[in-house]
Design goal:
By secondary structure, the chain is α/β, with parallel strands linked by helices. It is 42% helix and 22% strand. The strands form three sheets. A nine-stranded mixed beta sheet has the order 1-4-5-10-11-14-13-12-15, sandwiched between helices. It has a four-stranded mixed beta sheet with strand order 7-8-6-9, with helices on both faces. A hairpin with a 7-residue loop joins strand 4 and strand 5. The radius of gyration is 25 Å and the shape is globular.
Length: 400
Amino acid sequence: MSEPTTSLAPQNLVSWDELHQRALVHDDLTESERQAAADAMLELKSVLGEQLFEGLHPLVGFFINRAAGPFKWAIWFAKVLAPIRHHPDFDRLVADLRNPERYGERMTILNITDILSAAGFAFTLDKEIQINGKPKKPDLLVQLNNVDPGLFIEVTTLGASEKEREANEVFRAISDALWLSSGLFRYSGRVERILSPKHLEEVLQKVKSMAIKAQNETGFETLKIDGVICLAVATEVKAAEMGNWARAQGMKPDEFRGPPVEVSEMDRLSFKLKTEQAQLPPDKTNVVVIYTHLFQGAPNTPAAFSALANAIEDAVYRHSHIGYLVLVFSWIGGNRNESYRLRDHLCINRERFDYMCQTFMLFKNRFAAKPMPDELEQKFLEAFMSQTGEPDERGDNRVI
């Protein structure tokens, strides 16, 4: 499972000992899960140290959540660390996990080592090689045995674009302004474009004023600035009036959206792949793994995966020493435990740890100069397929 991604929390809000005690009495864990979670907290304390919670580490915010999911994740995490305690790279790995700035990157790598180790692969971190006379350190070398030349794997992440982050900030600022002004009314509308900080501040003042007026005087107010914002707010008794207004503007009642963002995620993925492949030896067939933000809906239908595969496969074909691109979506929500095949490509959906979901998409380069040996490729694919296991009553395995 990939690393938790949550906002950082203030210091000293949690400790391993507190988590250990909380696990023992958690209402949403079974008796065996309670003991396993409590043991996991002691194991993680011994590995990561109490000082982890003295700073702004991502795990602080994650474990403040009192739901069962973080405890189930901790059980998994402790089990992943246990068998590699005597690995020659373990101390360096733990040092990175303790570092807030390195934690996320190392967790994605650790997730891949966990998947492949279960299929019998041994791994080496950051093995130095020479490419065109220059030293490079791919993230992983995985091998089935000592005589196996193995696979070099580069693991990276692709976050939201700067434009998308700016758009999200504008959306949240206006939404927050509405709720802080009054949480008692309905609203509907759209933001037409990304606003500069000064412009956003001006618009927020107008949004707050209309919200207060609607709540205290009229019950229904609108704000329309051409090319900027189109918004209506209403008290509950005026909800029907707001609904009629929204439909007249081509929107749904109680829908608030925007600003629109025009960014080609396929271009961003292609550029990321081009950058990462340069870290890998050109005389071998290698793997690039990209953990990416959920830039579209999860491919939980054959048609959705087919559309994504058709859009991205030629970016993979451009690099003859890349045997597979593995694209990973992670999110909190729901997913079906199932897999799809499209030609040589594979999509694996799974849900674990109380709504912590992942999709692994494996895009094969059928034009690779040196294809993976059959046994190696079979083990590689089996490792990812085992992440879903047998399909449950909600899922299946389909060939498109």
